[in-house]
Amino acid sequence: MKPGNATRKGVAVKTMSGEDKTRRAGRVATRRRWRTISGLAAVLPAAALVIAAQGASAEASGNGVPSKGPIVIGASLSLSGDFSADGQAFDRGYQLWEAYQNAHGGLLGHKVALDVISDASDPGQVATNYQTLITVKHVNLIFGPFSTLLTVPASKVTNRYGYAMIEGAGGGPSAFATGLRSLFDVSAPVANSLVPFAQWIASLPKSERPKTAAYPTSNDPFTEPQLPVAEQILQKAGVKTVYFKVFPAEVTDYTPIADAVAASKAQIVLLGSVDVPTVSAFIHAFAQQHYDPQAFIATAGPDQGSAFVSAVGAGNTDGVMVPNAWYGGSSNKLSKAMVAAYIKKYGGTPSDINADVAEAFSVGEVTTQAVEATHSLDGSKLISYLHSNVTVQSVQGPVHFDNVGENVSATIFVFQWVHGRFVQVLPLGDPGSTKIEFPKADWGS
Amino acid sequence: MGTLVVDAVISGILTGGVYALMAAGLTLIFGVMDIINVAQGIFVVLGAYLSYTLSVHLGVDLFLGLVVTVPAMFVVGVFIQWAFIRRLGERERTAMSILATYAVAIIIEGVLGLVFGVDYVQLNAWYVNRSIHLFNFYLPYIYVFGFVLAVCLLAALYVMLYRTRFGRSVRASLQDRSAARLVGIDVDRVAAVTFGIGVAVTAAGGMVFGATNSFNPNTGYDLISRLLTIVILGGLGSIGGALGAAVLMLVIEDVVAVVWSPIWAPFVFFAMLVVVLSVRPSGLFGQVAGRAQ
Lengths: 445, 293
Hints:
The complex is a heterodimer. Chain A is built from 13 helices and 14 strands. By secondary structure, chain A is an alpha/beta fold. Chain A folds into three domains: 1-59; 71-191 and 333-399, Response regulator (Rossmann fold, 3-Layer(aba) Sandwich); 192-329 and 412-426, Response regulator (Rossmann fold, 3-Layer(aba) Sandwich), CATH 3.40.50. In chain A, the strands form three sheets. Chain A has a seven-stranded mixed beta sheet, with helices on both faces. A five-stranded parallel beta sheet of chain A has the order 2-1-3-4-5, sandwiched between helices. In chain A, helix 9 (276-288) links the parallel strand 8 (268-271) and strand 9. In chain A, helix 3 (123-135) runs parallel beside helix 4 (148-160), helix 8 (255-264) packs across helix 9 and helix 9 runs parallel beside helix 10 (306-312). Chain B is built from 13 helices and two strands; from the N terminus they run αααααββαααααααα. Chain B has a two-stranded antiparallel ribbon with strand order 1-2. Chain B has helices spanning 2-33, 40-58, 66-85, 93-116, 126-129, 141-162, 165-175, 177-182, 187-212, 220-234, 239-259, 265-279, 287-292, and strands at residues 131-134, 137-140. Chain B is an all-alpha fold. The interface between A and B is large, with 43 and 46 residues.
C-alpha cells in the first residue's frame, strides 16, 4: 500500500465521522435558517407595507405635494404588443401635455415629470405596473392605461391604494361596471358611440334609407357593447340585420368573415374594430369582392390619422366613418392650442393627429384642474372634487362625471374621410359638421 | 351557404399558401437544426419592411423586390447563426435557442421601431386590391400570386433538401453531427447556410404577409404561435408538411367561421390538432418520415 493511499484512507475514516457532525450541525443551522426565514417571511410584508406607506408619506405629506422636486405622474402604456400603435400615440399625448404644462408653470409651482412603463398590452402586466408605480416608485399621481381591457385591472389596483384613476381610453361598460368611485374616464362613454350614426340612418327618408345592415365585431369590451345599441335603433327603423357575428381579437384570416359580410349584400356595415389592421383587412377584402356598401363605419381605426391612410391606401379611405369625441379640425380653443403644440413638436397636419393624443392630453387637463382646485395631490380629495358635480374643460370638450366616472357631458361626433380630409359629419346641424358623403364612394376611387 | 363554404375552402387554401411560406423557414431551422426559432415572426415582419422600403422609396414591384430582399435576408440569417446560434453549446442547445432567438427578436423589433415607428403600414401594388372573377368567385390576385410563389419556393426547398448534395449534408448533419464531421462535412458551414436559407425564404413570406395584412414591428408576436402550430402539425422538418398543415389549419378555421362562428374557429382547429397529435405525435408528416424522404 502506498503512503498516499493510507493517508487518503485515514482521512476518509476521519472525514466520515466528521461528516456526521457536520450534517448534524448543518441540520441545526438549517432549522435555524428556516426559523429565521419564516420569521422574516411573517415580518417582511408588514415591514414592506410600513416602509411603503412611510415612503409615500415622506414623498407626499399633508396635501401630498412634495417639498421639492417635480410632481411625478406614473402611467402604464402599451408601448409594445397588440395596442402598441395606440399606446405610443397615447404616450405622445401624455408627453405633449407634460411639455405644455411645464411651459405654463407646471403644477402647484412644481414641474411635472412622467414615469411611463410598458405593459406590452397585457392585462396582467398592467396591474403589476401600477402596483410598482405606487408601492415602489411612490408616484404622486397616476394616469390611466390604454383600452378598457387594461383599465379594468389597473383601476382595481389604483383604487386599493386610494389613487384617483383619471384615464382617457377606458370607456367600455365593463370599466364602469366595477363601480369604483376612483375611476374617471374623460372621454365619451363608448356604449352609445354608434347612436348618432344609427339615428341618422333611421332619420333618412324611407326611400333613401338602407334596408339591410351587417354587424361583424371583435370580442373586445370596447367594441361588443356598441353594436347591439345601434342594431336596436336600426331595427326599429326597419333596417334588417343580415349578419351579426363576433370574431376573436386575433384572427388568422379575416377573408371568410369579410366575404360572408359581402355575400350578405348588406347595404351598410357597422364594424366593431379596435385597431387599424382589422379595418384594413375588411376594406381590402371588400374591395377584392367588389362589394361597396352605401355606408361603412368602424368603431376604431379610421380615427388614427395618417396611420389609417397608410394601411388601407389613400384610395380606400373615401366615405369611411368613425365615431369619436374629437378630431384635429375641432373649433375648441383648447384643442386648437394642443394641435398647434403637437404640430410644432411632431410636424404634420391636424388630420394626421391620432385621436388617442387628444384623449391622453385630456387626462392631463382634467388632472390639472382637479389638483389646482383642491391644491392637493391627495387621492381622496381629488376623487371627492371630481364627484362634486363640477364641470371641467378639455380638448375634447366639457367633462362632467356621474357617480361611476362616466363623462356625461361628452358629445359623440361621427367623422368621415372625404377626399383625403378627416371631417366631422354628425350630428347634423352641429356648427362643425359638414355634408355627409352618402352613399360612400366605391373602394379605390 | 354552399357558395360561402366553397369560397371559404378556396380562401383557406390560398391563405394557407401564405402561411406555409412563412412557416417553411421555421420548419427547416426547427426540424433540421433543432433550433426553436421564436424570432421567425419578426423575420416575417423584417421581410415585409424590406419590401415596404423598396416599394415606397424606390418604387420597386413587390415580387421583383424579392430579388433583393431574399439574398439580403440570407445574409441576415447567416450573420445571426454565426453571432447567436453557433455559440450555443451542444447541451440544452434546443432550450437555449429559445432564449437566443427571443433576444434576436427583441433586438430586431427595437431597431424596426426606431426606423419605422409603430404606425401600421401595408404593402400596396395594383394586384393587392384587385381580384380575378372565376366560376362565380372573386379570387384576389395577391393571394393567387402568393400561393403560386409558395408552391414554387417550397418545391425548390424540397429539391434542395432531398435531391442535392448539399441537402444530403444537411440531413447527415441532422442525424449525427459527429458522424457527419467524420465523413468530411463542414457542419458549422451547413448550419449557417441552412439558417440563412430558412430566413431567406421568410423574406417571400413576409412580402406576401405585408401585402395582405397591416403590420408594425410588434406584429411578429401574433404570428409565432400560429407558425409553430403549423410546423408541429406538419411534422418537424417536413416542407410539404408545412404546406399541408397550413392549408388544413386555414381551411378548417375559414369553414368553421362561415358555417358556425368565427369565435369557434380556433377552438375547432386546436381540438383537431390535439386529436392528430395524440394519434401521430410526430405530426402529419412526422420527423422521421420527413427526414427520410
